[in-house]
Amino acid sequence: MTGRSQKAKKKSAAANALWGGRFDAAPGAVMEEINASIDFDKKMFAQDIAGSKAHCAMLMAQSIISAEDGNAILAGLDTILGEMESGGFAFDRALEDIHMNVEARLAELVGDGAGRLHTARSRNDQVATDLKIWVRDALDGLDGAAKDLQSALIDKAESHAATVMPGFTHLQTAQPVTLGHHLLAYVEMLGRDRGRMADCRRRLNECPLGAAALAGTAFPIDRDATASALGFDAPAANSLDAVSDRDFVVEFLCLGAILAVHMSRLAEEIVLWCSEPFAFAHLSDAFSTGSSIMPQKRNPDAAELVRAKCGRVIGALTGLLVVLKGLPLAYGKDLQEDKEPVFQVAETLALGFAALTGMIADIAFDAERMKNAAGRGHSTATDLADWLVRVLGMPFRRAHHVTGALVRRADEKSCALNELDLADMQAEEPAITDDVFGVLGVDNSVNSRTSFGGTAPANVVRAVAEARRRFL
Ligand code: ARG
């Protein structure tokens, strides 16, 4: 490393320069291999430096360190931030983690006074603080990405407010629905996901800094000052809890898992819609890949991967819960295992959002084919039963029975329900009139479903406006 003092270099060859006072020898190679977290926790450099600056400013304000030392430390931290941002910082595995890499470099830049920064603090409260800020930043980024996906879905829903498609239950044609209504269902899911992110953010926003190693400190620190400088609502109330709590990580992974499940459902629908038997939709070349053997293929790989990546997100949640289970208070090195899953999940979710938002903007639907499919499978049988109830005053159970007989009749004649003639209808129920044909087409069916939250095109137009107001 550049510029480190000869003395420090000599010491670190034998033992860690920062905690090696009672050690004669450096850790063994395997010890360093298993212990070091710098390869992944360097992702938190900006949060770590922000935490150190807030701590330093507070130490100065409380006259725990001199203004001279404090200002030199603050300037040194800014220099280090610049080096890390530009990629010019040489991270050293022997220094274990981001905290000690920063502190060692600070000693090079500022000299002995740098050692005063760690007064009244420990890496235990430091790492908990860094990670909270990192998760908070990640939540803000993901919330924006969720909103972008909602926006793309709402735009698509608007242009397909009256596009009819088959609605499925059991993946069997059930009743006609509008594509706009279907797409808005995902907007609701994402709205709940964003609510969970907001909850997680609100609950995590108590600052661990100043809990020190586990028991607090004898120095006259001002925890309110550091908490507010770092954007927290308050200092965490219990020092033992502050250094050992990883609920916020579990919540992040948990809301991430629910979100990834939602993403996988939308991705799966894209895969189905783009398949040859469905052929409801088409992704452009930008979101399709070819097969190396079958020249005709257009594969929706991006959708398949979004569907699949859900696995690693759920795995991360399970993994961390197992790490935390039975861990006694307060800090244990086990807690270092919290970071990789968080970083990986945040990255996976961001990529999933980008891919889905791109695909939703890109996807082109075949309205005619969807409408034809919507009419198959006697999808308006419920409309016929409802007509018998509404117009003839039949109890629904009896109407269901009569409609079932008419469905069978249509099957026998290999025709659709609305292709039966009136005589066929009256053979099952003499009171049926010509009026019944007014409810049998797919357009009539969707147009009639105007109950709150229903699929009618008029509802979709209103729901699009409402969704823009609620979410964008
Ligand atoms: N790299 C450590 C972690 O991620 C930092 C805290 C280490 N604390 C300690 N007492 N060894 O958890």
Class by alpha and beta content: mainly alpha
Number of helices: 19
- Please state the overall shape, judged from the principal axes of the Cα atoms: elongated
Helix content: 55-70%
Gyration radius, in Å: 31 Å
Give the names of the bound compounds. arginine
Order of helices and strands: HHHHHHHEEHEHEHHEHHEHHHHHH
Strand coverage percent: under 5%
In angstroms, what separates the terminal alpha carbons? 48 Å
Whole-number average pLDDT? Answer: 95
Strand order of the largest sheet: 1-2
**Total strand count, please?**
6
- Unreliable stretches (pLDDT < 50, length at least 5) are 1-12
Largest sheet: 2 strands, antiparallel
Describe the protein's topology.
Layout: H1 6-14, H2 29-35, H3 38-41, H4 45-61, H5 67-85, H6 98-110, H7 123-159, E1 164-169, E2 172-178, H8 179-204, E3 206-207, H9 223-229, E4 234-235, H10 239-244, H11 247-274, E5 281-282, H12 301-324, H13 339-362, E6 364-365, H14 367-375, H15 381-392, H16 396-412, H17 422-428, H18 442-448, H19 457-471
Parallel strand pairs: 3-4
Antiparallel strand pairs: 1-2, 5-6
Helix pairs in contact: 4-5, 4-7, 4-9, 5-6, 7-8, 7-13, 7-19, 8-11, 8-19, 11-12, 11-13, 12-13, 15-16
